Structures are given as structure tokens and as C-alpha cells.
């Protein structure tokens, strides 16, 4: 390996980065992060792939990563445009013979990678398991015969070990392409930042913030109450809040796993802290399922190939997206999502159930809307969970239909959360005012 190219993706960190260990063996190294210009365009579901709030978070991650790489003789160059063309230009410009990239799980991400390889057939490609607990090479029995439901996967996973954390690299080979002292972004991306209100979110992108949250969560003992509080609609300490950093790769699932293991060694295992491991396994399951499903992850019939009894009604979708449905709790959830880029797991389930069941909407429109707005968007987790709710995924019960009145009583009994995001404007939309309603 003479001239290596490290194509950063969902691995924006220095710590526990096996790809950097491999990169250290090259004679020269060039590091890039590619943003395809199609990500800012509207898709078939009237949404764009990369919303301004997620881009704000990724921007912060990249700026910090560039600084951290500078301390080990490296940096990062942000590419924008046609990803296949941009990566190919770098390969030619730097005479790259080896491409290093963390394993991709999304169908479209893999398609772009395959197109790069097809255009540059002479390069060697090293794919690194940097985004999951397990390595594909170590667990073929787990991955090749992936169960259709989570519980059998969970039982099988107990037979496999999680790799130890990678040692941090002290120095990396220099690049044949000079880096800017400060990270430079194209004008289109800079404009996206101005559309994002940074003050409404507590999440700060980057490895330092990820490490701080990881340490704080366990040091303050929140892990021992996790299972009891994780379904809350609000409150920073009620859940671990690792997901944005896991999605960007500023934090690895193995870091969380070994931190949890150390905590359990010192404080004991209970149902709450063990549930954090279960959530890591859910994330893991969705990754390998996405790899197995390919394009089927985005199909209306899902993995089960069973057609849902839903359709598309533009008025209903707009009302849901704008938080103007007949359900105040759902409206509050949608306002929090669009204003901050984050909602809790329970909130996501409530909003998704409303769209699929009460509004009888094609689940893919909801998945695409979440994709645009969530700062912790993960292709496998997002689309896998939406399939689950819609009854076309891995749920053995054939989907989930939440009683919205009961959800409000259980999780917002005094309407504190609803009033926080709607103020006193908690009136219910008259279902006869909209053309394709009433709602049953």
C-alpha cells in the first residue's frame, strides 16, 4: 500500500478507528469526506435527504475531526458534487492505489461505492467494520443466516465477542494533496448552516462532546434507571442521548459497550443498565438487516412483501409534518422534531403510528421526513423502525398501533410536554375542514 485514500463516512473520529490503524501503514495518505449534491434535492417523498439541522451537526463533527487529524499530521478535504466523479478525481490526482472506507449498510451508499470501484478498477479496496459491534469476518454465522426477528438474533449474538477498542494513532503519513488550515465548505453547504437554529438543540457535533456525554451518563448513575426513564418524552437524562454521535461515527458502539461493561463490573448488572446493551443489539440488528435487504428496505411492501392498507393523501401528510393533526400530542412531537432535529424513541413511535394507522399514510413518506429532520439519522435504524411500525418489517406481531389517548395519559398526563411545544395552542383540528378527512 503506497498511496492510500481514506474516504470518511459514518466514522468521524480518531479514537477506536480501525481504518486509521490501516491507514498508518501507507506511504502517503489522503483523507476526504464526500457530500453528494443530490442530498440537498427533494426526493420522491417531497423531502430532502440532508436537512439543515443534521448538516449543522455533521459540520461541527467535520470541523473538529479536521483539527484532531491535524495533530497527527493529517487533515480532511470536503468534496461536494457528484461523489463518484469527485472521489475519482482525487484517486487520479493523488495516484491512489488503495481505497479505505468503513463498511456501508445502505443500498444507495453501496451503489455509489460500487460505481467508484467500477470507474477505478485497478485500486484495492479495504472495507473496515467501524460502525458495528461485530465484524463481518468474525461472525459469518450471525450475518449470513440473519434471523427475520430480533429475539433470535439477540440469542445468537450472545455467542460472539465484541472486539477491543483500537489504539489511538500517534502519527499518520502525510498527504500529497495539501489541506486548508481551516476546513473549507462550498457555498451551497454554507447556506444550509444559516437555515439552522443552533440554539434549540443541546447536541454539539464532534468527538469531544460524544466522549463527554458518554462519561457523564455513566458517572451520574443514569444507566441504573435507564429502562424506567427511557420512554419519557422529554428530559436530557432520561435516556443516554448517544444516537447522534453514533450515527455520525463520532462515537463507536464498541466504546459504549466497553464503557457499559466497565460500569457493570464496578456497580453490578441490573435490568436497566443491561437494557442499554439490548438497544445496542437492536441497532446492530438493523445494520445487518439493511445490508441483507438492500433496496427492499425502501419498498412499500418492506421485507415481508405484504402490501399495507395505506396510501398517500397530500393534505394528511402536510398536516402531520406541520404538527396540525387532530392529536395535540402528535403535533407537539412534530414541532419538537422540526425545531430541534431530535425526538425521543417513544415520540418517534407515537408519531409513526399516527401517520400509518390514524392517517392511513404510506409509511415511506414518514421515514423520508424523519430522514430529513433527524440529526441522528441512520439509514438502517430509521427505515427499519418505520417498517416495524408499518407491519412490513421484523415485528412478529405485524406492526404496532398505539392508542394515542392512552399514550398522552401515560407519558404526558398534565400536558406539560404538549404545552412546551404548542404553548396554549392545543386545540384539536376539526377533521371535517380537510378534504380527505374525517379521521376514523
UniProtKB/TrEMBL annotation:
<dbReference type="Pfam" id="PF03441">
    <property type="entry name" value="FAD_binding_7"/>
</dbReference>
<comment type="similarity">
    <text>Belongs to the DNA photolyase class-1 family.</text>
</comment>
<dbReference type="Pfam" id="PF00875">
    <property type="entry name" value="DNA_photolyase"/>
</dbReference>
<dbReference type="InterPro" id="IPR036155">
    <property type="entry name" value="Crypto/Photolyase_N_sf"/>
</dbReference>
<dbReference type="InterPro" id="IPR014133">
    <property type="entry name" value="Cry_DASH"/>
</dbReference>
<dbReference type="InterPro" id="IPR002081">
    <property type="entry name" value="Cryptochrome/DNA_photolyase_1"/>
</dbReference>
<protein>
    <recommendedName>
        <fullName>Cryptochrome DASH</fullName>
    </recommendedName>
</protein>
<keyword id="KW-0274">FAD</keyword>
<feature type="binding site">
    <location>
        <begin position="239"/>
        <end position="243"/>
    </location>
    <ligand>
        <name>FAD</name>
    </ligand>
</feature>
<dbReference type="InterPro" id="IPR036134">
    <property type="entry name" value="Crypto/Photolyase_FAD-like_sf"/>
</dbReference>
<dbReference type="GO" id="GO:0003677">
    <property type="term" value="F:DNA binding"/>
</dbReference>
<dbReference type="GO" id="GO:0071949">
    <property type="term" value="F:FAD binding"/>
</dbReference>
<dbReference type="InterPro" id="IPR014729">
    <property type="entry name" value="Rossmann-like_a/b/a_fold"/>
</dbReference>
<dbReference type="InterPro" id="IPR005101">
    <property type="entry name" value="Cryptochr/Photolyase_FAD-bd"/>
</dbReference>
<keyword id="KW-0285">Flavoprotein</keyword>
<feature type="binding site">
    <location>
        <begin position="376"/>
        <end position="378"/>
    </location>
    <ligand>
        <name>FAD</name>
    </ligand>
</feature>
<feature type="domain" description="Photolyase/cryptochrome alpha/beta">
    <location>
        <begin position="2"/>
        <end position="133"/>
    </location>
</feature>
<keyword id="KW-0157">Chromophore</keyword>
<comment type="function">
    <text>May have a photoreceptor function.</text>
</comment>
<feature type="binding site">
    <location>
        <position position="226"/>
    </location>
    <ligand>
        <name>FAD</name>
    </ligand>
</feature>
<dbReference type="GO" id="GO:0000719">
    <property type="term" value="P:photoreactive repair"/>
</dbReference>
<dbReference type="GO" id="GO:0003913">
    <property type="term" value="F:DNA photolyase activity"/>
</dbReference>
<dbReference type="InterPro" id="IPR006050">
    <property type="entry name" value="DNA_photolyase_N"/>
</dbReference>
Amino acid at each position: 500500500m503506497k498511496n492510500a485514500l481514506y474516504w470518511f463516512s459514518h466514522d468521524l473520529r480518531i479514537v477506536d478507528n480501525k481504518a486509521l490503524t490501516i491507514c498508518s501503514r501507507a506511504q502517503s495518505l489522503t483523507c476526504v469526506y464526500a457530500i453528494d449534491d443530490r442530498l440537498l434535492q427533494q426526493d420522491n417523498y417531497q423531502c430532502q435527504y440532508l436537512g439543515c439541522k443534521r448538516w449543522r451537526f455533521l459540520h461541527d463533527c467535520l470541523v473538529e475531526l479536521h483539527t484532531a487529524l491535524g495533530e497527527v499530521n493529517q487533515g480532511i478535504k470536503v468534496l461536494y458534487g457528484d461523489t463518484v466523479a469527485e472521489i475519482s478525481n482525487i484517486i487520479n490526482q493523488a495516484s491512489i492505489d488503495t481505497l479505505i472506507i468503513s463498511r456501508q449498510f445502505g443500498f444507495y451508499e453501496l451503489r455509489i461505492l460500487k460505481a467508484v470501484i467500477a470507474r477505478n478498477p485497478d485500486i484495492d479496496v479495504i472495507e473496515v467494520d467501524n460502525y458495528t459491534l461485530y465484524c463481518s469476518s468474525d461472525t459469518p454465522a450471525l450475518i449470513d443466516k440473519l434471523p427475520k426477528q430480533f429475539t433470535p438474533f439477540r440469542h445468537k449474538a450472545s455467542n460472539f465477542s465484541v472486539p477491543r477498542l483500537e489504539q489511538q494513532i500517534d502519527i499518520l503519513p502525510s498527504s500529497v494533496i495539501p489541506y486548508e488550515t481551516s476546513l473549507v465548505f462550498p457555498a451551497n453547504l454554507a447556506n444550509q448552516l444559516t437555515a439552522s437554529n443552533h440554539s434549540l438543540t443541546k447536541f454539539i457535533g464532534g468527538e469531544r462532546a460524544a466522549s463527554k456525554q458518554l462519561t457523564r451518563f455513566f458517572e451520574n448513575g443514569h444507566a441504573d434507571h435507564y429502562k424506567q426513564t427511557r420512554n419519557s418524552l422529554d428530559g436530557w437524562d432520561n435516556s443516554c442521548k448517544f444516537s447522534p454521535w453514533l450515527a455520525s461515527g463520532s462515537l463507536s458502539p464498541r466504546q459504549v459497550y466497553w464503557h457499559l461493561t466497565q460500569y457493570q463490573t464496578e456497580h453490578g448488572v441490573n435490568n436497566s443498565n443491561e437494557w442499554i446493551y439490548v438497544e445496542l443489539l437492536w441497532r446492530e440488528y438493523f445494520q445487518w438487516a439493511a445490508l441483507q435487504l438492500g433496496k427492499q428496505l425502501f419498498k412499500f411492501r418492506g421485507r415481508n412483501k405484504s402490501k399495507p392498507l395505506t396510501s398517500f393523501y397530500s393534505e394528511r401528510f402536510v398536516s402531520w409534518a406541520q404538527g396540525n393533526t387532530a392529536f395535540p400530542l402528535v403535533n407537539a412531537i412534530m414541532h419538537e422534531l422540526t425545531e430541534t432535529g431530535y425526538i425521543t424513541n417513544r415520540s418517534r413511535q407515537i408519531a409513526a403510528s399516527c401517520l400509518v394507522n390514524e392517517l392511513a399514510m404510506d409509511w415511506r413518506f414518514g421515514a423520508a421526513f424523519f430522514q430529513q429532520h433527524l440529526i441522528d439519522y441512520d439509514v438502517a435504524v430509521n427505515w427499519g423502525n418505520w417498517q416495524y411500525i408499518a407491519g412490513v418489517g421484523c415485528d412478529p406481531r405485524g406492526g404496532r398501533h398505539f392508542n394515542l389517548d392512552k399514550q398522552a395519559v401515560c407519558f404526558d398526563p398534565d400536558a406539560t410536554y404538549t404545552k412546551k411545544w404548542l404553548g396554549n395552542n392545543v386545540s384539536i383540528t376539526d377533521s371535517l375542514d380537510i378534504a380527505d378527512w374525517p379521521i376514523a
